Amino acid sequence: MGGFLTVKIKFFKMNGAGNDFIVIDNRENALKDFDISHFVRMVCRRGKSIGADGLMLLERSDSADFKMRYFNSDGSEGEMCGNGARCIARFANLMNVAKEHMRFETIAGIHEAVIVGEEVQIMFPDLKVNDFKLLQRHDFGFGPIEYHFGTVGVPHVVIFRGDVESMEDELLLNWGRKIRYALDVFPRGTNVNFVKVVGPSHIIVRTYERGVENETLACGTGSIASSIVSFLIHAVEPPVTVKVRGGELKVGFERCADEFKNVYLQGDARVVAEGYILPDAWKE
Ligand SMILES: N[C@@H](CCC[C@H](N)C(=O)O)C(=O)O
């Protein structure tokens, strides 16, 4: 029993609008002896282990308050995760690593975040209008469809459907997987968002996430991509309220000539548990 408890790693379980994460303070390099990708795959398994959409490490940074490293549940390291970023900002503030207004490093660049009571707002770098490829047509294996594409740190396809809320899970997964794995069209793979416009500033979004290979309850960068495409195609006005399966997110931006400036994502970011990851959590 003593051996069983010798290696234990402190973790926090968090979620932002239902997108859930394991968060580890790695400033002292607690995971130096681990194959991180394998460790992430093991501890993110639902049922057999803790379970999560992804895992984040908070690390030291020379140029900002801290560095965020984000891993999808399949062990792949992602450039950015909007909801993850909001969660790690809350975590950094709780751990006294950062004040309420903070800057942090990601693979996709430096981000700013601010704690707004129960919510966290994260700011994104400016996006170019021309980087959004609108009104594309392709047959992904279920007949030709119209889609839109844009990158918000990570790649996103946006598809408008009038039946988003009632769309069968199986259909969403089938479309999501076929599009995500259309590597001739998206060499790095892509996340896939199914979107319905329900008001002048309101949309509903469901997302199939690359790296989780499933629908998640929310996707932050997907909500931003969906809001901007909804603005470009359906004149949806920011700030946009995005209803996702796990709650609600707010997306703001301003169109200035050929750029989107002041892009932000806001919503809840909660710590729901803390404890120790024990060796059985990463056993095959
Ligand atoms: N959950 C996300 C996106 C995470 C990254 C993504 N799955 C990818 O690697 O493409 C979010 O909230 O933005």
Automatic annotation (TrEMBL):
Signal peptide segment: none
Catalytic activity of the protein: (2S,6S)-2,6-diaminopimelate = meso-2,6-diaminopimelate
Recorded GO CC terms: cytosol
InterPro entries named in the record: DAP_epimerase_AS, DAP_epimerase_DapF
Gene Ontology biological process terms in this record: lysine biosynthetic process via diaminopimelate
Keywords: Amino-acid biosynthesis, Cytoplasm, Isomerase, Lysine biosynthesis
Gene3D superfamilies: Diaminopimelate Epimerase, Chain A, domain 1
Pathway: Amino-acid biosynthesis; L-lysine biosynthesis via DAP pathway; DL-2,6-diaminopimelate from LL-2,6-diaminopimelate: step 1/1
Entry's EC annotation: 5.1.1.7
Family: Belongs to the diaminopimelate epimerase family.
Name assigned to this protein: Diaminopimelate epimerase
Organism taxonomic ancestry: Bacteria, Thermotogati, Thermotogota, Thermotogae, Thermotogales
Gene, per the UniProt record: dapF
